[in-house]
């Protein structure tokens, strides 16, 4: 409530101005005290989340940035400050550039494909009358499979001769071919996360009023027009949220990549997070690994901010008469 609403507004003719000034001062103190109390309660309620955010997110990012300014590998006994040399060396690192472009390809392909499949699954599930439980279970089941188990399942599918695809053509070696390995890994990632994203779209569809669809049908709108003009625009907030989830998943591939290809053949399937693991734990180059970490976090923040800015502008222009 505004402070001015709590201040006495009495203006009686002939009233003592000293008394009126005292009432004004008391009312102002009460209003300020009430606002401070609400602010303190809000900060107390937020403090647990802020503590976890600081300890497990902000502090590691800050420490990674500090470590990235030092040369800290097996050739040095103690970290040596060298400024932004690690960042400059990344531009000359062929393996890093390959990982960067591989990760970008994974994001560009898996994010829209996963969102598209999730929307199709959710719309299909909403339209059927019988067997909803079985349909939901079939779409969502890959989500419940641990990533390590999913990686082994798809390794069996891709195994030449003995795998499921090997029965079709024994000469197919998708994971061993540098041209097809990254696409084979992306297929598994899309299969794994499309059902999970579908859950959010199912929730979003329940919030759309049936009267809107009925009114549009009366006006002669078809199924495609209903989706384009009603369903998809009203699912925009859900799409923004799942976009961040799918983008994060595209840049945090480690466990299934380690099992399926270990970044090979060559660096055909290597990505930034797995390269950070290799650099930090296999090669013991902490400074370089920290620099790659900062680049990865910065890239995700930039993409996320661009997405939110685009959605805000779109919402503003849609609401502006």
Description:
- The model is unreliable at 1-14 (pLDDT under 50).
- Helices cover 74% and strands 1% of the residues.
- The longest helix has 52 residues, at 17-68.
- It is an all-alpha fold.
- A hairpin with an 8-residue loop joins strand 1 (70-71) and strand 2 (80-81).
- Helix 8 runs antiparallel to helix 11 and helix 11 runs antiparallel to helix 14.
- The two termini are 30 Å apart.
- A two-stranded antiparallel sheet has the order 1-2.
- It is flat and about 100 Å long.
- The protein contains 14 helices and two strands, in the order H-H-E-E-H-H-H-H-H-H-H-H-H-H-H-H.
- It has two domains: 3-53; 90-319, MetI-like (MetI-like fold, Orthogonal Bundle), CATH 1.10.3720.10.
SSE blueprint and pairings:
Elements lengths: L2 H4 L10 H52 L1 E2 L8 E2 L3 H6 L3 H34 L4 H13 L2 H12 L5 H5 L12 H26 L3 H9 L4 H12 L1 H15 L4 H6 L11 H11 L3 H34 L2
Antiparallel strand pairs: 1-2
Offer a few descriptive terms.
MetI-like fold; single chain; 1% strand; 321 residues; 14 helices; flat; mainly alpha; two-stranded antiparallel sheet; 2 domains; disordered N terminus
Please tell me the total number of domains: 2
Secondary structure class reads mainly alpha
Classify the beta-strand content into a percent band. Answer: under 5%
CATH class group of the largest domain: Mainly Alpha
* Helix and strand sequence: HHEEHHHHHHHHHHHH
Q: Uncertain regions: pLDDT < 50 for 5+ in a row?
A: 1-14
**What is the 3D shape?**
flat
Named at the architecture level, the CATH assignment of the largest domain is Orthogonal Bundle
* CATH fold call of the largest domain: MetI-like fold
The CATH superfamily title of the largest domain: MetI-like
The counted number of beta strands is 2
Helical percent range? over 70%
